[in-house]
Inverse folding.
């Protein structure tokens, strides 16, 4: 069994000094590849160093909606340059809208649309953060689709309803579920996990945030994506191995990841319990 964690932030300070053990854990859990998302371009050099150290790491570059106050006149050109210069960059982001923690909608929209243009130019997917902004996001994407063209991508750490899920599926997006799907009070998200077509489904940790049950309250890490996989497989009433095959194939398809022949003895996955 091979799993791909499609959204991590292992460059955060909470992981410093324990990255080797972190890698041991994700290998033991059957995680064979990770996509490292980007909060702001200034952290990209450090992410490159991590990818030098851990060859199973792919990279994204972009500016998070809660950091759009850092958007400058040359930020779009910087993101474009960084994404073009490193073959390990598989996506633009994370970008999108967050109207839960901020109300600067126009500023967020401008930065988001600029990053959509970059993704379109480079033919790379976007990693989209969407919180309390699904309708606004849908309208922006529909306008971009009509006037510029289609961009592929993923709604990461998805927290929307089944209706909202269908909006973004209709726009061609993949839907990625995080540890939130394991929370018993997240019923609408659990229902959404049941309706996503098997060829559009992804899993992630968004570590170090949102550790899944049974690790809730602890620092999240890539190994815990297996708990997300187990939960989603149970919700969809399919074996874990099938869910792993589907989501790994989908991640490879969306991000253009080419997995080497199995480097780890992933058929003998160590229990995390």
């Amino acid at each position: 069994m091979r799993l791909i964690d499609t959204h991590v932030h292992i460059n955060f300070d909470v992981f410093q000094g324990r990255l080797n053990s972190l890698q041991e854990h994700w290998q033991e859990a059957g995680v064979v590849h990770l996509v490292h998302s980007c909060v702001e371009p200034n952290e990209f050099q450090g992410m490159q160093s991590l990818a030098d150290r851990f060859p199973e790491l792919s990279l994204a570059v972009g500016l998070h909606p809660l950091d759009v106050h850092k958007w400058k006149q040359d930020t779009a050109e910087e993101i474009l340059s960084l994404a073009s210069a490193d073959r390990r960059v598989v996506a633009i982001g994370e970008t999108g809208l967050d109207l839960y923690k901020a109300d600067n909608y126009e500023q967020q929209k401008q930065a988001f649309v600029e990053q959509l243009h970059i993704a379109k130019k480079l033919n790379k997917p976007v990693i989209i953060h969407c919180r309390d902004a699904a309708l606004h996001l849908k309208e922006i994407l529909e306008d971009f689709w009509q006037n510029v063209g289609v961009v592929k991508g993923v709604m990461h750490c998805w927290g929307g309803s089944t209706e909202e899920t269908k909006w973004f599926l209709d726009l061609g997006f993949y839907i990625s579920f995080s540890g939130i799907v394991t929370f018993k009070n997240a019923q609408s998200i659990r229902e959404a996990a049941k309706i996503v077509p098997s060829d559009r489904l992804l899993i992630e940790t968004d570590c170090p945030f949102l550790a899944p049950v049974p690790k809730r309250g602890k620092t999240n890490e890539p190994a815990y994506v297996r708990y997300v996989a187990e939960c989603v497989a149970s919700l969809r009433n399919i074996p874990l191995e099938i869910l792993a095959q589907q989501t790994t194939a989908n991640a490879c398809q969306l991000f253009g990841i080419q997995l080497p022949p199995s480097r780890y003895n992933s058929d003998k996955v160590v229990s995390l319990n």
In short: The first helix runs from residue 19 to 28. The radius of gyration is 17 Å. The mean pLDDT is 95.
